[in-house]
Amino acid sequence: MLKLLDSLQQLAVSGDTPFGCKIRSAAAAYGVEKRIAQFWSQEGGTALAKLDDSAILEEGGQTDWEELAAFLPALDLQCFSCTESAARKMNLPVSSRGEIMLLHPAGDSEKAAADLEINPSLRDIYELLDRVRTDTFAPPEFEPFYMDLSYRIRRGNAFSVGIRREGRLIACALCSAMTERSAILSGVACAPELRRHGFSGSAVRGILSILKKQNVYIFRAEGENEEFYRKLGFQPYGSWAEMKRAPEKR
């Protein structure tokens, strides 16, 4: 049975799994009691988190899939993400999918480059992310992106690094969620005209050396950047799926 949580102590999900890290980090940033973000749990360790019109699911050892599938429409979501296997079990129409990859950074990982900028302007990061959009990647709308990440950064639940040349941000790496031991690397970008010069790799290695987490996950879009992340040491972990509601016709 799904239960709406009213305290962080009731959230039993692990912060060391990819979706668990996202849920735990959101709870630490926004709290549970204020209802800015909402959290539900089922017996068996399954957890569901909703922020604005998006939700994520971490499945536990025992999950009532019928209850979840019946409950999701009531949340009026624009976006819902979970593992690909969970989407299949709920018979959800998948809009996009990809691979989750995991890295266990070495304890003696190299130090961050001296010219690495800590938490550069989110406007500059967004502009760079917008420049590298593809058929499978597009940044969210600016206002929710800015409000969410600026709040998480102030609360210590998100972090970013950047590289500048002549005052312009040319590469960045963004961690949007983290717990004591784990982190989600949610955005890596380099100016298109400066690719294959090592800037993206330097940004990733730099943020890893600063975060010092035992588990670092990325959610890689299908067909995107597999070789890049493999060279950095990331290994396959699982698969994710995302469901997006089509805009209503006017």
Structure explained in plain terms:
The chain has helices at 18-30, 65-71, 84-89, 122-131, 142-155, 199-211, 226-231; strands at 3-4, 37-41, 47-51, 54-58, 79-83, 96-103, 116-118, 159-165, 168-178, 182-190, 215-221, 235-244. The chain has 250 residues and is of the alpha+beta class. It has a 12-stranded mixed β-sheet, sandwiched between helices. The N and C termini lie far apart (38 Å). The model has no long low-confidence stretch (mean pLDDT 93).
Layout: helices, strands, pairs:
Layout (H helix, E strand, L loop, with lengths): L2 E2 L13 H13 L6 E5 L5 E5 L2 E5 L6 H7 L7 E5 H6 L6 E8 L12 E3 L3 H10 L10 H14 L3 E7 L2 E11 L3 E9 L8 H13 L3 E7 L4 H6 L3 E10 L6
Parallel strand pairs: 4-5, 10-11
Antiparallel strand pairs: 1-2, 2-3, 3-4, 5-12, 6-11, 6-12, 7-8, 8-9, 9-10
